[in-house]
Amino acid sequence: MTHSSFLAPLSEELGILHCHGADAEKFLQGQFSNDLTSLPSPGGQWSSYSTAKGRMIANFYLLRDDDGFWLLLSRDLTETVAERLRKFRLMAKVDIEDAGTTHALLALWGAGATEVLGNPGGEDVPATPHAVSVRNGARIVRLPWPEPSFLILASGDDIASWGEQLRARGAHEATGADWRLGSIRAGIAFINAATTEQVIPQELNLEVLGGISFTKGCYPGQEIVARSHYLGRLKNQCYRLRAHAPLAPGRAIFSAAMGEQSIGLVIQAAAVGDGSFEALAVVRAEDAEHSTLGLEAQGQVPLEKLELPYSLPLQKAAEAN
């Protein structure tokens, strides 16, 4: 091994919902922000589930295979989303199950991840973002991170075997919190119980990440999402921030320009080894671009804005002008 790779169980980070049945595609197509009908099997995409007012109940990674659809979402929202989907399925032939008791997730990432995942038998490793391969009882999806990153979904028995194999091939032990920090640096945050129904999909940069279809049929919140897109009414965006103080989902953010009025909130956060914290936060773009941000209205705890691995819509618009 010439490059490092890291392996972490995600049981404390992400829950797993399994949706399957004769009407699963049709039913879920009418609930989520992305277009399931264009998703190959196997394949993956970002998506979200919103209220009628466009506020995200949850966002998630959606994986499709011959067994149906798998939603990978914040663990503390698994039952909330399952109950809401069951409420609206009516006569649709679709089963919605919490698969966290039978299946598990591993994350593998780092410059050497592709080498570690390479199979002596010759099976392909997913080479492009959202590509999925199925082998040895597992579904392997490549995430759109700047560095190679994979999620491995398998049954409890199979996931243990996968962990042993990957560690034997040189993957270093890591934690779910380590993976969360990597996800933050990739510009990808998951709504959780502290931030549910607080922001619309575009404010979490889901449009940039390909998690919204503007050509599919109706779904809850579509009118709000479409209006923000076509009328250019988006005022908030998701930024990567750093502070030398604890950050947690739901914590308010302030700016020097707005004083006591909060202008954003933390969506996801993780500790860094040097004692600082990094976060993805939805913030009013005008303040993020032109004012000083902080955790307190008086500015005693400043927030530093860090780069994302992609450009934001409002930044592109400003550059075009």
Report on the architecture of this protein:
The chain is built from eight helices and 17 strands. It has helices at residues 24-29, 78-88, 113-117, 156-168, 176-185, 222-230, 285-290, 313-320, and strands at 6-9, 14-20, 43-50, 56-65, 68-74, 95-98, 103-109, 132-135, 138-142, 149-155, 172-173, 236-243, 252-255, 264-271, 277-284, 293-294, 302-306. It folds into two domains: 6-185, Probable tRNA modification gtpase trme, domain 1 (Gyrase A, domain 2, 2-Layer Sandwich); 235-309, Elongation Factor Tu (Ef-tu), domain 3 (Beta Barrel). The chain starts with 5 loop residues before the first strand and ends with a helix. The chain is α+β, with helices and mostly antiparallel strands. A hairpin with a 6-residue loop joins strand 9 and strand 10 (149-155). This is Folate-dependent protein for Fe/S cluster synthesis/repair in oxidative stress. InterPro entries: GcvT/YgfZ_C (IPR029043), YgfZ/GCV_T_CS (IPR017703), YgfZ/GcvT (IPR045179).
